[in-house]
Amino acid sequence: MKKYVAKRIVTIIITLFVLSLFIFFLTHNTSGDPASNMLGSDATSEQVQALRDELGLNDSLITQYFRWVGDALHGELGDSYFRQQSVVASIKECIVPTLELSFYAEMLALLLAIPGGILAARYKGRFWDWSVSIFALIGLSAPCFIYGLLLILYFGVDLKALPVSGYKTFAAGTWNHYRYLILPAISMALTQAPLLTRITRSSMIEVMNSDYIKTAKAKGLSGTKILGKHAFRNAFNTILTVLGQSVGSLVAGAAVIETLFNIPGMGQLVVNAVLKRDYPLIQGLVLVISLIYIIINFIIDMLYGVVDPRIRVTGKS
Amino acid sequence: MKNEEKSIGKEAIRERRKIKIKSFTTNKLAVFGLILTVIIVFLGVFANMICPEGPYVMDITKRYTAPCSEFIFGTDKMGRDVFSRIVYGIRISLIVGAVTTIVTFIMGMILGMIAGYFKRMDNIIMRLCEAIMSIPPVLMAIALMSAFKPNIQSVVASLCIVYTPHIARVARGATISVKEQTYIEAARAQGATNFRIIFKHIAPNILSPVIVQATYIFATAIILEASLSFLGAGIPAPSPSLGNILYEAKEGIFSAKWITIFPGIAMIITVLGINILGDGLRDLLDPKSN
């Protein structure tokens, strides 16, 4: 197990190194000079030169890259061009709504997917299987903002029951907090759930066909006990892998939903940074979100060992 | 004698193919997907015959007209016919999806085969692919769009960069397992060059798993393009795309529902058809399901 963890950490470090190179060169000096963008069109060339010196844009690319990485390792990601604050401060301000939204969406998705998947596997090829599969297929077939728009139309415009724009912290009351996040969370969950449902269904079916389930049946265990205690525990491993990917895509998918529902989170921050070409902010955000994604997947890899003792021993999945 | 054997082999293959096609046509859902896709492709291909006026004709006096006999899906804030914008939007979505799938398929195959065949290149190519895949797709695509000019070519290029690693990974895995087969050794013993081995012997034998992966790309590329355009970072106005029609529809959502509902449903139907057809194709090609 120790060897396995060490190996994973080495791969993560290499991935991060390549990732940092990629992010740096992708967003570097790609469209115009940030110094003249910041100063506006009526700045003199001396002023632009002075600012370029100040920002360190006149050094070689390699020097600039190592300075960026060095600062990043110290938790410094530079200053945003347009927001009057540092990148780290902007991210700190925006990370909470995104994490809350992603958490609620993932919980809702699991609440839909796991019972749905088990139901479909239990009644394979019959009515429940068909209806669950068709819902999953429809959910899979549109970007989450379409469900967001349709929910806004129904709950916001027709019923006027829920707010369709904005965000409230817990300080404004628990119910108020949930009222603002419920529609965005549902629209994200609707596109997350299908994949989880399909994986739950197929891994449950696979496990149900295995010998030890037949043994359990022969032993005379009840259907629910087999499903819950034997089958689901063994199917959970596969579900966990997809869960990791889905959490990562949630944080990114939040970009669309936060923009639609006007929630001041990281996703909206990314979109605004891209539209304004705020490169330090884009670099910082892509790095932080990818890091979250990598860490979540690392934790999930480690969880395999907890869920499945076989992996703990052999160190292989 | 030899010829006879060959023809028997071919016949067997033809027979197997017939069985597969039959199992596809008995799969009602797959046929339904095929019909949906044919309708959608028909709309896209013959867009200029179905809507001869095109998607740009404006009539400010008729802005926000509710669906009626003249405009079956109503008009938008500039008085443009929503139906023709949807039809042309479908055309753009299909073009983006198809070009992305073809380009990622070719690039992914080449990169994957090189990585799988030459050990030395493996580390370089796969680490780069892993780095790209560690950035969530939506984020990666908008970050790329910030570096490119806002036009349809850039959108396709961004999507290709996002999805090529997914194909390359599958192609690499398949290449590694095929490479050890005896027929590759035989080819090498006969003095075939690496180039010939890769394109003549490995490529045809890894097609199935790679095509299975590529069927996913078509639908997800359409969805990602719509998301990008919806954020204002994709296909620029006034060109219609299902994403940017919905982006503009947001303004009038409280008064003109039809601009949201119809393009939304069109989007769901388009991707649904492709997804169902893809599922059917996967059952057909997936070596595991045989």
How would you describe this structure to a colleague?
The complex is a heterodimer of chains A (about 325) and B (about 290). Chain A has about 325 residues and is mostly helical. Helices cover about 80% and strands about 0% of the residues of chain A. Chain B has one domain: MetI-like fold (Orthogonal Bundle), CATH 1.10.3720. The longest helix of chain B has about 35 residues, at about 195-230. The model of chain B has no long low-confidence stretch (mean pLDDT about 85).
Give the topology, please:
The complex is a heterodimer of chains A (317) and B (290).
Chain A: H1 2-26, H2 34-39, H3 45-55, H4 61-73, H5 87-122, H6 127-140, H7 144-158, H8 174-208, H9 211-218, H10 223-261, H11 266-276, H12 279-307, H13 309-314
Helix pairs in contact in A: 1-12, 5-6, 5-8, 5-10, 5-12, 6-8, 7-8, 7-10, 8-10, 9-10, 10-11, 10-12, 11-12
Chain B: H1 2-26, H2 28-45, H3 47-50, H4 82-117, H5 119-133, H6 137-147, H7 152-179, H8 182-189, H9 194-230, H10 242-249, H11 258-285
Helix pairs in contact in B: 1-11, 2-4, 2-11, 4-5, 4-7, 4-9, 4-11, 5-7, 6-7, 7-9, 8-9, 9-10, 9-11, 10-11
CATH topology call of the largest domain in chain A:
MetI-like fold
Indicate the CATH topology of chain B: MetI-like fold
> How many beta-strand runs of chain A?
0
The run of helices and strands of chain B is HHHHHHHHHHH
Mean pLDDT level of chain B: 85
Please report the first level of CATH classification, the CATH class of the largest domain in chain A: Mainly Alpha
Instruction: Report how far apart the termini of chain A are.
Output: 11 Å
**What is the CATH homologous superfamily assignment of the largest domain in chain A?**
MetI-like
CATH superfamily of chain B: MetI-like
**CATH-derived architecture of the largest domain in chain A:** Orthogonal Bundle
Terminal Cα separation of chain B, in Å? Answer: 31 Å
Can you summarize the main beta sheet of chain B? none
Task: Give unreliable regions of chain A as ranges.
Answer: none
Q: Radius of gyration of chain A from the CA trace?
A: 24 Å
Q: What is the number of E strands of chain B?
A: 0
Query: Helix tally of chain A?
Result: 13
Secondary-structure class of chain B: mainly alpha
Hey, roughly how much beta strand do the residues of chain A contain?
A: under 5%
Please identify the oligomeric state. heterodimer
SS element count, helices of chain B: 11
Give the helix proportion of chain B (percent range).
over 70%
